[in-house]
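Support reply, case 0932

Customer input (verbatim):
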Amino acid sequence: MGDFADTRVSLAGQGTLVGVALTAGSTACIAGVAGLQITVRIVAGLTVTVGSPLLILRKGSTYWAIATFGAAPAVPPSPPLPSDTPPSSGDPAPAPKPVTTTGTLTCPPIATSTWRDGHWRTDIGSSTSADTYQGRYSGSGFGRMSGFAFYGSKPRSIAGATVTKATVKLRRLTSGDFGKRSPTLRLVSQSTRPGGFPTLNESTTGPALGVRGQVSPSEATFQLPTAWGQAMVDGTRGGLAISISSDDPYIRLAGRGSWSAAWTLTLYWRRSS
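Our regenerated output:
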């Protein structure tokens, strides 16, 4: 390769030049400048590799590579625009919080009946809407009575829910003495009226009630044990009763035929999902 003197194009008068090394070297190399190839000497301490951009200075007829320089710095990318999605921490997303639903279920009885002397009484009205009696009237030749209310399948319509409160509406009617008396409430297995005597289970003392029109109060919305309401929802129990193992106190509570709200069961519940 000839030097600049061998070329037909003059670079004289162009001052400091910029070229690209076509060969590597530590004392001299071939460089491309303005479309020409020239021999360039390399100043001491400078190492040139192929492709290095060179700063070239002419002195007389000799060209000197006096420095190399890097390519223009890359422009850093613009930061991403903010988004609505938070950056991932690498941890799994927490489980969603459970949603709690609450409600109230009102359950009128499907039947109110009184049992005496081995059968359901029909002399006091319909055997499915009769008043409910407890005990035996003083001096009566008939047997002891027990009154019942059955709730069918409605309590089980909220199966799986947790009962937080359960109440029942009771009204005392004329029969026996007028003083305040408390019935003994029982939880019954059956949800519909059986042919025979129902199965009695848990018991609790009901509200002290006077006779309607004579001694107040004669009616009450009585709070039952919460477990009783839960048993109704779970289907292990299906009805309520007033029943004692003795004759007193003799009490008559309204059935469906005497009072539309009689024995209405209300269940307060919650459910998490």
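We compared this against your earlier run and they match. Two observations from our side: Confidence is low (pLDDT under 50) at residues 1-9. The CA atoms of residues 90 and 163 lie 41 Å apart. Please reopen the case if you see a mismatch on your end.
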